[in-house]
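Example 3.2
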Amino acid sequence: MVLYFSGTGNSRYVAGRVARALGEPLCSLNERIKAGDYSPVETGERLIVVTPTYAWRIPRLVGDWLQKAKFPGAKRVWFLMTCGSEIGNAEKYNRALSREMGLSYMGTAQVVMPENYIALFRVPGVEESRQIVTRAEPDIDRAIAALAAGEAFAPLRNNLYDRVVSGPVNPVFYALVVKDRAFAAGAACTGCGRCAQLCPTNNIVLRSGKPVWGGNCTHCMACISYCPTEAIEYGKKSVGKPRYRLEAL
């Protein structure tokens, strides 16, 4: 079974590639998390988790869900993490999570995909994004080959920088950066409700036909990236930047 969480399509794309190559079923964690569904998931012996990288680890809401859910029959777990540049020492925390899940840890693979974090970083345009995805294909293929052979992923880089960003920087980043106060919908908003439908934490509600954010944001960027009229901004940081979603490629 391939479980995936995805804000703007990167991890969904990688998960789909893996599932098709291995003949494994796909399960969206977005839907399960949004519904508060922790019912057992029949995964078979092999569990593959594909997620984006948030502050150099897997997203907290994904880790929380994995800790609460049950996976009858599962014995081994592999992690594939998409990122805009690097995942730091996420492997340390994935290994610990695997122990908490009662599963044998089979490694973490990094796949560099187009950056979507419009709240902080530069987001590539369509053509540059296509090139980045093309460069990612060999990494995806190597991960698939290891999975098909039942082998562990190769260990990743683990230097002082990696340990710092995934360690003490991660909680500081969440505390200081992962806020939704800067989100706002402008005059172009049609009140379609797409942002509320996509929000995995049910953090967005429509009031007087406009979205309002409720303080429980995970910064997946789905709302701002999928707004059909590009009416949503993240303060001044998103102004003039392209909205990234993989489907646009």
